[in-house]
Amino acid sequence: MKFLASQPLLATNGPDNSLKIWIFDQPDGSDRLLSLGVNILSAGLDRSLRFISTVRDARSCELSQGSLTKKSKSRGVQMEELKLAPIIDFSSEDARQSAWDNIVTCHQGDKVARTWSFQKKCIGKHHLKSHADVDKAGPVMVCKCSVLLFRRKNNWIITHATSLCLCGTRGLDKVPPDYSVLG
User: Fold this and answer.
1) Which of 89, 119, 126, 158 is the most exposed, fewest CB within 10 Å of its CB?
2) How far is CA 161 from CA 14, 123, 128, in A?
3) Of 18, 22, 19, which is closest to residue 9 (Cα–Cα)?
4) Does pTM surpass 0.70?
5) How far is the C-alpha of 35 from the C-alpha of 3, rounded, in Å?
6) Going by C-beta distance under 8 Å and a sequence separation of 6 or more, which residues neighbour residue 72?
7) Buried (b) or exposed (e) across 97-136, using 16+ Cβ within 10 A?
8) pLDDT tens-place string over residues 50-78
């Protein structure tokens, strides 16, 4: 059981290994169940993005970064050297996850945010690069309507109102010039 810092949220786990998030937002200060989950998306300093099932261990897996074993053999380097930098922030959205890449990650010391497909369990096609005078990308957030947001100082800015499979703009007169799609 743990409260999340500076938020009215309490995370608990039960005897069935389920993870529950409780929010204290009622007028009388009482709680309500915000979300119930048995799946966890996790990133660590080992440079991997993992899906963990708390119900069935056989479902747990590491999302693929591509054919690193083949590349490491052909280039004569260690596989760890080819992996992406550690993930410092990520966001995901379940809605229509089969239609587009539904995870976005920011990596340590990297200006590029990368997309991932949970459905395919692998890295996606798109790289979003900052053209602003910053030394790294981050933090990111993906909304239910697949709007991709980047944090700029204290405000969230809309960079792409799009399905992430297209990575084109929709519903915006002008996309802010400090982010663009590379791939």
Assistant:
1) 119
2) 38, 21, 13
3) 22
4) no
5) 15
6) 78, 79, 81, 82
7) eeebbbbbbbbeebbbbbbbbbeeeebbebbbbbeeeeeb
8) 998 878 889 899 999 988 889 989 999 99
